[in-house]
Design brief:
The structure holds 3 protein chains of 3 kinds. Helices cover about 30% and strands about 25% of the residues of chain A. Chain A has helices at about 50-55, 85-100, 105-115, 130-140, 160-175, and strands spanning about 10-20, 20-30, 35-40, 65, 70-75, 145-150, 180, 195. By secondary structure, chain A is α/β, with parallel strands linked by helices. Chain C has one domain. In chain C, about 85% of the residues lie in helices and about 0% in strands. The two termini of chain C are about 25 Å apart. The chains are: A alpha/beta, B mainly alpha, C mainly alpha. The interface between A and C is medium-sized, with 27 and 20 residues.
């Protein structure tokens, strides 16, 4: 788990996002302290996914500033799994890229929490949609990054799988980590701060 | 027909036959190679290089025979949907590639001392080269699909199209070649073959045939085992999906 | 970046697709020429070097469409970026992987192609040397074109349109290597072309990838 000292808080000031010539949102400001979670809500097209991509560094802001930890874990709409590789091979590559100590430990725990330990050697192409999503979450869990950015993490998951994530989320937050998530369904994040993004 | 459709029955039979075909293969290769490389007479013109023939000619036979096996298996697969036919056709293809490659390589090694060149665009050589390309396309098509059923169907259709096309290719290449290059200097071996050469050739042919059967059985068993592993993995995925 | 490169090679090995098909394509294209121009050894020997080069160029194009496309589709590209890899590093790893999985096997097949085309044995070395020196440029130019067309429908055809004109200098100097009079000059120009392509392409390809994520 990340060291609370090293997790610099997330600060967003006057952030603006423009995609395909359209201003998605502007003048967005918020702060997130270490150990806190932020649930981003809003109608489709409000820019929830764009915000997460901005925070992940995948998009350049059209204006404003953004301060975040250097090491992040991002779960987008796709799970970045290679069909021919086994679940474990897929996750080990990303965990290795994330670096840090105890890669194997983090990997084993992430597989355990997501209930994929029994399928570690199965090629990713055989997984169901829900299992693939769980593999995507396992990648985030194994990353060791202080800031988790989760875009609709529960797509395709049943309630039992969602509930199993609760302890992992709270352990991350208690260790001083941060979570920013978008979701249409309630997430087991305890009492997260809320950011409602308005459509137009 | 469907008596052998049961993979378990096939596997029992294959386990029973395979040691015998393997033994026959080793025996034939032993005798054949001795007869061909040591005991057979040398050609008064080609000297020892004529011995390449004993490796080369059976490879050419088997290259074509293997394609015939694939074509027949593909027909069986399309008409009767026999599951083992797909396995057999798929398993035979790389062996066919090996035979074709041996045929081309030994032919090339033979061509250098006898014709003074590694390769000529003679009708025969050309059609064997085209056969090699068809084999490779067939294998590439097999591996291009994720879904085995679709791959089997597509590959079977290609194998049959190839079977129809091969005589046309052979014919067209014959016609194309005679237009430009007389066949007289490229004739191999001579019109008649001496009985002292025929016997080692026949034994080597048998050795190749047993090799084909043995490796085909091995590859089919391996393929069936791989399918069972995949099915087991799929069951685990399904079982894991339902919370215990 | 090394990690990404080894994974690319592992994927290429497990998927066993692009590289092998490019090789077969190369051999088939080479063997079409005797059918088209006739099998006379003198004619074939005359055109051998050019045919091998054109066939190698076309074969290199085949696997380009799948260079970045699968990664862009399954979210791998986004993950590589959020894991701190620069676009330049990603592009460089991909270009090296393309060369290793497509161009290098082609290089090993050139003696075979030379035999099929009755090229004089003395020219094999120069032909292979030219390809060894020139194909990195093809992979580099191809990497740029593949990056620029990520996410486009019909990207594959577009890649050919983009790569072929840019590959003309490499082709000219590569074949020029076999010219007994201008060989040394062609060698220098070929090396220069490859160096320019290699030094510019990671940045150009990175710009393409960056735009693809927008």
């Amino acid at each position: 788990m990340p060291d609370p000292e090293s997790a610099s808080p997330l600060t967003v000031t006057d952030l603006a996002c423009r995609r395909g010539g359209r201003l998605v949102f502007a003048a967005l400001s918020f702060r997130l302290a270490a150990g806190r979670a932020l649930l981003v809500t809003g109608p489709n097209g409000a820019g929830k996914s764009s915000l997460l991509k901005l925070l992940a560094g995948l998009l350049a802001p059209a204006g404003g500033t953004l301060e975040r930890p250097g090491h992040i874990a991002y779960l987008g709409h796709d799970n970045a799994l290679k069909a021919v590789l086994s679940v474990e091979e897929n996750l080990r590559f990303w965990a290795g890229l994330s670096g840090g100590a105890a890669v194997e430990d983090r990997l084993a725990r992430a597989l355990d929490v997501t209930g994929l330990a029994a399928l570690a050697d199965v090629p990713a192409r055989l997984l169901s949609a829900g299992q693939k999503r769980r593999a995507g979450l396992a990648r985030v869990l194994a990353s060791g990054a202080p800031l988790w950015l989760l875009d609709e993490p529960t797509v395709g998951l049943d309630t039992a799988s969602i509930d199993r994530l609760g302890p992992a989320f709270s352990a991350h937050l208690e260790g001083g980590g941060m979570i920013v998530a978008t979701s249409h369904v309630p997430l087991p994040l305890g009492a997260p701060e809320q950011l409602a993004m308005g459509g137009r | 027909m469907h008596r052998f459709a049961n993979p378990a029955r096939f596997l029992r039979l294959a386990r029973l036959i395979q040691p015998w075909t393997a033994a026959a293969m080793f025996a034939c290769f032993g005798v054949g190679l001795y007869l061909a490389l040591v005991a057979s007479p040398i050609d008064y013109l080609q000297r020892d290089t004529v011995r390449i023939m004993y490796i080369h000619v059976p490879a050419a036979w088997m290259a074509m025979q293997t394609y015939a096996v694939i074509a027949v298996a593909s027909l069986v697969s399309i008409v009767w949907r026999h599951p083992l036919a797909d396995v057999a056709a798929r398993a035979a293809a790389p062996i066919g590639v090996a035979f074709t490659a041996i045929c081309l390589i030994t032919g090339s090694l033979w061509g250098k001392p006898t014709w003074g060149t590694w390769w000529v665009w003679d009708a025969r050589l050309t059609s064997v080269l085209v056969l090699l390309f068809i084999y490779m396309g067939y294998m590439a098509l097999w591996s291009a699909f994720d879904d085995r059923q679709r791959a089997a169907r597509a590959a079977a259709v290609l194998a049959l199209v190839g079977a129809v096309n091969l005589p046309i290719i052979k014919f067209s290449v014959d016609w194309w070649n005679t237009l430009h290059q007389p066949a007289s200097i490229l004739r191999r071996g001579g019109p008649t073959i001496d009985p002292s050469m025929l016997k080692p050739l026949a034994v080597m042919g048998l050795a190749y045939l047993f090799f084909f059967i043995t490796v085909l059985l091995m590859r089919m068993r391996a393929d069936l085992a791989a399918q069972r592993l995949e099915a087991a993995a799929e069951r685990r995925v399904m079982a894991q999906e339902v919370p215990a | 970046m090394l990690r990404l490169l080894t994974r690319e090679l592992r994927l290429a090995w497990v998927e066993r697709s692009g590289g092998a098909i490019a090789l077969i394509f190369f051999l088939i294209v080479v063997s079409l020429f005797p059918f088209a121009v006739g099998p006379q050894p003198q004619v074939l020997a005359r055109i051998a070097a050019g045919v091998v080069w054109v066939a190698a160029l076309l074969a290199c194009l085949l696997s380009l469409e799948r260079l970045f496309q699968p990664d862009a589709e399954d979210g791998t590209l986004e993950q590589l970026v959020t894991h701190g890899l620069s676009f330049e590093a990603i592009a460089t790893a991909k270009i090296i992987a393309h060369w290793l999985t497509t161009a290098l096997p082609l290089l090993l097949l050139t003696p075979l192609a030379a035999i099929l085309l009755n090229a004089p044995a003395a020219s094999w070395g120069l032909l292979a040397a030219g390809l060894a020196l020139g194909t990195p440029a093809l992979s580099a130019i191809g990497g740029v074109a593949a990056a620029l067309t990520v996410g486009l429908r019909r990207g594959g055809i577009l890649i050919s349109l983009l790569v072929l004109p840019l590959a003309v200098p490499t082709l000219i100097f590569g074949v020029g290597l076999l010219d007994p009079l201008a060989g040394v000059a062609a060698l220098k120009w070929l090396a220069a072309t490859t160096l320019v392509a290699l030094s510019v392409s990671p940045f150009a390809a990175a710009a393409g990838l960056r735009a693809a994520l927008e």
